[in-house]
Amino acid sequence: IRRNGQLKDNFKIISRNVKMATDLGELLVPYMPTIRVPRTGDRVFKSECAFSYDSPESEGGLYVCLNSFLGFGREHVERHYRKTGQSVYMHLKRHVKEKATGAAGGAIPRRRNGKVFLDLELNRDFNGGDYEYEDEAKLVIFPDHFEIPLPNIEELPALVTIACDAILNAPSPYKKQESDSWEEEIQVSKHARSLTQQENGVRIPPSGWKCAKCEMRENLWLNLTDGSVLCGKWFFDGSGGNGHALEHYKKTNFPLAVKLDTVTPDGADVYSFDEEEAVLDPHISEHLLHFGIDMLQMQRTENGHHTDNHVQPRVSDWEVIQEAGLKLKPVYGSGYTGIKNLANSCYLSTTMQVLFSIPEFQRAYVGNLQRIFDYSPLDPTQDFNTQMAKLGHGLLSGQYSKPPMKSELIEQVMKEDYKQQQRGISPKMFKALVSKGHPEFSSNRQQDAHEFLLHLINLVERNSSGSENPSDVFRFLVEERVQCCQTQKVRYTQRVDYLMQLPVPLEAASNREELIAYESKRKEAEENMRPPPEPVRARIPFTACLQAFTEPENVPDFWSSALQAKSAGVNTFLFVIYKIAFKNLFFLCATDVSVDVPDFLDLNRLRATGLQAGEEELPDLTPPIVIPEDTRGENLLTTPEIDESSVMQLAEMGFPLEACRKAVYYTGNMGAEMAFNWIIAHMEEPDFAEPLAVPTYMEPDLPSPSLPTTSALDNQPPEESISILTSMGFPRHHTIQALKATNNNLERALDWIFTHPDCEDESEAMSDTADTEPNNNSFSNANDLSSYELFAFISHMGASTMSGHYVCHIKKEGRWLIYNDHKVCLSERPPKDLGYMYFYRRLSSC
């Protein structure tokens, strides 16, 4: 038995007894009721700490609780002991070192205790032939830190031995979630590494393929042994081919084939005829290069809903966005930690890198780290705020981004292996939590970074009840103006949004002549079955994107409340400006687009104005669900047609007669069942049993929604409206007063606040708020609200946002950095014109 008074001290041997079995049994007796054996369904976290990214490879190793099976690093195991009283932990430690070399200079393969961590996932950086590892496991009893080296099968009680063995051999806690996804995990083919390719001189062109035995030009497969291009099997919907690829395998036994229209720089679809399933080929790039296909110069394009069997070189996208070919300098320390790619997880890593570069997210999670950890539930792996704080600390602490030692640096330079020093963190626990229950994010497929950002904002809001909501930095109001072209009356409505989605008007390209010439050459090459020309990227001015966003557009089937009939209508979008993140929508599958995104942006021209002098509002009336065709061009009847039989059916159920009439009317006489559903949804409304009144444009003195009533002013404003304004830095009582004074109109309430800053009962509250809120939340000068600076952008490479690869560039301390999975480097040429999502920070007042 060993005892260690402090974890950082060397262990002191305090007893060596011949009767070891008796001593160990007596020592563990008080704790036996708390020791459990993992059962089916229990998740064993033996590779990652619940509060940090410590692992058995970390300096302090990992402690696994023998009751909850949660893992804890050296800095967090004491917290768990104090909170739960659990005393017995298994300490796992992996020692990694270089392999010893033999007389001939070759490495001597050696692995000690290889079965101890049978299913522990290795750090891929240590998985090469130059390293070996030695595993160590022991039981530690808190609070005195008594240590019992393992294995001690004969000395330990049977229950403890079984529990230890089950923990050491437990599978990854994430494997169950991966198997729950509908997609089947693809395995490496047994033929991939031993595949023999014929030296027959076959070279495959980049386009114009067709089956060697028929005229099929779709669903074509390249046999990786002899280079034959043949069609696939026929499908039940009439698509596919004539099965010549399968016939070729039956004659030759050449096992592997790749689908030609799936070849991209990030992979291809490979099928094994022998194994009868889709497989992975780790050497696919070499196998394709044998027949003249360079994966890095291939990119799939799409034509409508069907894949065009057509491959185009698009080296520039991948090289320019990743700044390939440049000697980028790695950076280390706080804020410069990369994130490992967990199989198509770059959409997650780029989004989180950007979010944790925002001060509000840093303050909400990393600034409150100890409070979040101290009040975390018993299972912190399922707590969103805990995992957000853990991820933020991992990215910002610098603990997992340390520069190599001088001796290591010299050695890595000699081996030309310098880049491997950046290992990054592996957020498997975070990904498993935020993707839980989501059909797309829980899979291993690539996803849209924009959709993930909105998903994460939703999670942040749901878990910020009673505390600071950092996602408010993205929140702003959109004002929509709709005008009836016949009466010239208008309606202003507002909604909350988080991102601007800018259209890309290709007709505004500054190189239109070049694009027209390219399109002509492309069509000519397609007709003559020749390789396509080098793609030409459309160059779009950013001002054209903003202009296209604010252009009025026709409203189809617009129902004018002034006419009580359909009319022509147009709408326009403007903004009540707050902090805004921009999303620039690219049609990545169709064309290359370059937008000259500015570093500084003035959005004053997009400021919402509200109802202007001389404008008249449309009446606030709801159109009927069904408008009879024979009333087009005529006055609507005051007494509408109602299916009385349905009304009586509902009335017999005990509902008020007038409520039944309204239910049948507003469901368009679709029957008693539809009307019943309407009643259930509206029975709590105060006017539920009031008589049905259908206003027409012939009725005099239509009520105007712009005139507030006494009851409206006396009511408490909606809580959502209050939270929107308070998130902008205004006191709660001030926002309530402003909303009441403007009949709960958000845009007018904001103007009211600016025009009433000197209220006697508000001055003290405003000064208190100014002391607690950061400068960039201040609304002291309205003119400052329109000036923004670009601080980050996410770029995408690939045929669509659901495939390919994402990287992000972030501006920190006046310099741009590129975050490409686990690699973080100084950016030499940030490709601002090729971004997918742009993030702007509002400039603080001078």
Automatic annotation (TrEMBL):
Q: Which PANTHER family match?
A: UBIQUITIN CARBOXYL-TERMINAL HYDROLASE, UBIQUITIN CARBOXYL-TERMINAL HYDROLASE 13
Q: Where is the active site?
A: C346, H805
Q: Which GO terms describe its biological process?
A: autophagy; protein deubiquitination; proteolysis
Q: Which GO terms describe its molecular function?
A: cysteine-type deubiquitinase activity; zinc ion binding
Chain ranges of the UBA domain: 641-682, 716-756
* Source domain of life: Eukaryota
- Please name the InterPro entries in this protein's record: Papain-like_cys_pep_sf, Peptidase_C19_UCH, Ub_carboxyl-term_hydrolase, UBA, UBA-like_sf, Ubiquitinyl_hydrolase, UBP13_Znf-UBP_var, USP
Entry protein name:
Ubiquitin carboxyl-terminal hydrolase
The EC designation for this entry is: 3.4.19.12
Q: Does the keyword Metal-binding apply?
A: yes
Q: Tell me where in this chain the USP domain is found.
A: 337-843
> Per its UniProt record, what SUPFAM superfamilies does this chain match?
Cysteine proteinases, RING/U-box, UBA-like
List of residues binding Zn(2+): C211, C214, C231, H244
Question: Which keywords describe this protein according to UniProt?
Answer: Autophagy, Hydrolase, Metal-binding, Protease, Repeat, Thiol protease, Ubl conjugation pathway, Zinc, Zinc-finger
Q: Does the keyword Repeat apply?
A: yes
The reaction(s) catalysed by this protein are:
Thiol-dependent hydrolysis of ester, thioester, amide, peptide and isopeptide bonds formed by the C-terminal Gly of ubiquitin (a 76-residue protein attached to proteins as an intracellular targeting signal)
Fetch the Pfam families from UniProt: UBA, UCH, zf-UBP, zf-UBP_var
* Domain UBP-type residue range list: 187-295
Which family does the UniProt entry place this protein in? Belongs to the peptidase C19 family.
